[in-house]
Amino acid sequence: MEIYILGIIISICGNLLISISLNIQKYTHTRQSQLGTKPYYTSRLWWYGILLMGLGELGNFAAYGFAPASLIAPLGCVSVVASAVISVVFLKEILRASDVLGGILALTGTYLLVTFAPHSAPHVTANMVERCLISVQFLIYFFSEVVLFCVLLYLYKCRNMKHIVIVMLLVALLASVTVITVKAVSGMITETIRGSHLQLTYPIFYIMFIIMMVSCAFQIKFLNEAMKMFDATEIVPINFVFFTASAVIAGILFYEEFYGLSLIHIIMFVLGCLLAFTGVFLIARTRPKIKMDSVLISMGKISGKSSTANMQPESKDNKYGGLASKLGCNSGMQQEDS
């Protein structure tokens, strides 16, 4: 088996876990708002979602050690398709024509990505990472990212501009740093396991590891803020497009993954990205509304608890209807976390 195929398999499994995790977290945010209970982070169900996300990200982390970043990152569309399947199977949503078309486009795009993306990349070593960090193209790219991040953070925090594009761009800029560091750390660990020169003795390994952990933590922070403010139907496609674009650019500029790739391969890779983007938007847009009361009643029956009227607001309440409509892309975990 080619080593990049192993990376693809690991990445797909990781993205499936991440899809389940994001649905659990969004469900917890909405349910906690409906019931007016404690903050979401006091919920065991939310922490189960975080645990699954950790496992999924661990799978993606390992995948970056076996395949180029520009090949692994676009496979995130698997999590979007999985979310649609979860909604249909567990929440009994209607399977729409746009879901089927979006799934076909996403899978077609994934096939093109896997086929025409770079299948090989230079072995990641400490010396290579140090050399790439001081390259002219990366320094220009990194400086531009820092400036843009500071401007967006100022607009978001100081000017109180809570637009979804601003929040998701913050996540994407952090994701770009995360991809670079994850690829570096995973690659150096992989090289060490393969029996090459021990890479863990170099200070650059620990520097990249610390940056990776910090960027991941802030990604989770901003992503959870976005999930509290916006619908999952908006978050999922925008996050996928922004993350994929930032990861591919990072792979090209830092690891030079497209070096020597033919023009036809580049064109087909871009086409695969566009098909995957289109499929994700078709799947995520205008998901059917799900009534929160029916989900909570169902959970109450399963857990053996009776559902009372004072557990939730009346369905005719405007606030309740607005919150209930935000369950469009979420899976229902049919177990009580209290």
UniProtKB/TrEMBL annotation:
It is a multi-pass membrane protein. The chain crosses the membrane at residues 6-24, 45-66, 72-91, 100-118, 138-156, 163-184, 204-223, 235-255, 261-284. One of its GO terms (cellular component) is membrane. The keyword Zinc-finger does not apply. It is found in: Membrane. PANTHER family: NIPA-LIKE PROTEIN 2, PTHR12570. This is NIPA-like protein 2. It comes from Tachysurus vachellii.
